[in-house]
Amino acid sequence: MESYVGKRLDGRYEIREIIGVGGMAVVYKAYDNIDDRIVAVKILKEEYLANEEFRRRFKNESKAIAVLSHPNIVKVYDVSYGDRLQYIVMEYVEGITLKEYIEQQGVINQKEAVYFVMQILRALQHAHDKGVVHRDIKPQNIMLLENGTIKVTDFGIARFSRSETRTLSDSTIGSVHYISPEQARGDVTDDKADLYSVGVMFYEMLTGQLPFVADSSVSVAIMQLQNEPKRPTEINPDIPIGLEQIIMHAMKKNVAERYQSAAEMILDLEEFKRNPSIQFNYSYFVDTEPTKAITKTSEIPAPVKIEDEDDEEEEDVKNRTIPVLVGIIAGLVVVVGVLCAIAVKVGWIDFNGGFGFNKTKVPNFIDMNYYEEIEGNSEYDKFNFADPITKNDDTKAPGTVIDQTPEKGTRIDEEKTVIQLTIAVSSEQKEIPSGLVGSDYAYVISQLENLGFTVKPKKVKMEGIDPGVVIKVTPGSGTMATVGETVTVEYNAYEGEDIEYVTVKDASGLSSANAKKLLTSLGLDVEIVEEYSDTVGAGTVIRQSVSDGTKVPSGTSVKIYVSKGVDPSVETTVRFRLPTESFLKLRKVEAKLNGKTVKTDDNVRMDGLYYNVTVKGSGASDKFEVYIDGQLYYNCLINFASTPPKTYNEETHSLKEEPTSESTTPSEPIEEDYD
Fold it and tell me: Are 51 and 60 in contact (CB under 8 A)?
């Protein structure tokens, strides 16, 4: 294998070091001289240049990624298909593989796992929408960045779903532990195969184990075809039932019973996040044909040849005959349903007693910890909980239930009645982190929830922005907020998410309280901005940011501008002399009133002349300061209450001399020639 380290490709890409070696290519870290950036260069191994199959697969990868543009997919910058050299120039990603992270953690916590999976699914949704099927989704091909962002890599065996879909001609497709049954069997492969692989990865993240393990890859492939995996909760009982159902739904062997799109799986995960105790009622296709034994091995399409990852052994695929009992089970379900109906009809089941679904007693949740004892507890899965209301209460441990509706002992229909719990939160203040706007919605939620905030999602539709990208966070980054406080996260809706529209009403002339009541009743978020007005009385709405009759998405933020009455402040001009410096040096002047900047001038000549700053205030002792290049130069107090306003306690400060040094000319950067 030829090493390209120290060489320059096409006079542009300086190869620095090897960062990865695959079956058919080597990946190098390189420097792009033209665009001044670090890139990853994937070069097809020299021994495969004459092999048409490998050249085809390598070209497939570049074609597949070239049509994709998504924050969770590595970008392609350049490709080359020369006879002597073929390479792909990609985004350089610093991080570790998801496989390495799983091995480090053993078991990944559910919030983190959901966050990772949703990013992977959004990347796949984008690829599938472009007609690209990855076909090798596994944690080794998922990069995890330091900030929690996921990058899907290695589209080396990807295909365009609209062109070639048969896999029989390929000798090794995907990693055997993650491939779908149809891939192992040699059937048609479409986007549902990628979803199966996601299900396997999800399984591994939450249990720390692969669903199928055997001594050889062929044996694992047979298990993918014939065996049902152990349920995740049997390995890790802490996994919520709803999450287990999502995993098992994705891993259905029958393609028709599996998720039909990444968007569909994303929606279920969103539902789970909103209600972690949710259980899904998946309806699968029922086989109406008579029960049949599976045909002999010779009649089954030839399986894909799978090379053993450990010792490259091969085994003959042996078919097993599995009776199908769907019809019998379906019949039993119908019989049981009829018997139950008869029982109710004749009064065998008395709904006036404590027996029956609609007469369940509400337990006493008061003083229980919502997060530790209620959320995710299978004992309470039958109840329909609303998102808990939070209330500051430092006398109770955070998460303790302090109120409930309905009260304990109330008989309810657990399917229809919503239980509302109020939980205690600390009055502790934490800062809203920076970097949330522009990030992935799931990542932002994870960050805020980990800090103890309650997240209120708000969907919008914006062109030119990827689905799931956060557009606004309220309160904004850097704001101190109480733990448990609700933070609104506005994000661009995913495909398939419906946006409810409402018609805005005019709140002008109403009191601040009535205006807020009117607009919130419409499903709008209200932000109050106070300002002075010479014509509108204090406490009355002057105007609003969205005009009357405008149709906007539910949850849209509307600013109402409320009058503070007539502005009591008066204007005055502060006059002071600038320092005199040689060479008429230009320096930055910044004036502040009570710590707030009122004027900035970046190019002021230090010529010893007077400098004027006009300010506006109403206090009797407002603090005025002038800084020159960040150093305090002049300060005084202003009495705006006097007529005219007067300055007093004036002080002028000397400026520190800037250190001088001999003028030096920097040497030219040394450029090593890699040609």
Answer: no
Close Cβ partners of 436 (under 8 Å, ≥ 6 residues apart): 444, 447, 448, 470, 473, 477, 489
Kindly name the residue from 10, 78, 136, 506 that is annotated as catalytic.
Answer: 136
Position 409 scores a pLDDT of 85
CATH 3.30.10.20 fits 429-492, yes or no: yes
Type of residue numbered 334: V
Strands 429-431 and 470-474, how do they pair?
A: unpaired
- First-residue to last-residue Cα distance in the chain: 19
SS3 letters across 456-507: EEEEECCCCCCCCEEEEEECCCCCEEECCCEEEEEEECCCCCCCCEEECCCC
673 a catalytic residue: no
Q: Which residues pair with 596 in a beta bridge?
A: 593
CATH fold, domain 501-563, is Trypsin Inhibitor V; Chain A (3.30.10)
Residue with tokens 């906007």: 552
**CB atoms near residue 574 (< 10 Å):** 21
Are the CB atoms for 157 and 170 separated by under 8 Å?
yes
Q: Which class is 1-92 in CATH?
A: alpha beta
Which of 487, 485, 557 lies closest to 528, judged by CA?
557
What are the counts of helices (DSSP H) followed by strands (DSSP E) for the chain?
12, 34
Find the angle CA(160)-CA(166)-CA(167) to the nearest 5 degrees.
Answer: 100
Over residues 332-364, the pLDDT tens digits come to: 444 445 444 444 433 334 333 334 444 688 999
CA 371/CA 367 separation, integer angstroms: 12
Q: What is the pLDDT of residues 217-237, one digit of tens each?
A: 888 888 888 889 999 999 999
Residue ranges per domain, the chain? 1-92, 357-425, 429-492, 501-563, 570-652
| pTM attached to this predicted model | 0.44
Mean of all residue pLDDT scores within the chain? 78
For domain 570-652, which architecture applies? Sandwich (2.60)
* CATH number for the domain whose boundaries are 357-425: 3.30.10.20
> Is 570-652 in the same CATH topology as 357-425?
no
Kindly indicate the confidence band of residue 87, based on its pLDDT and cuts at 50, 70 and 90: confident
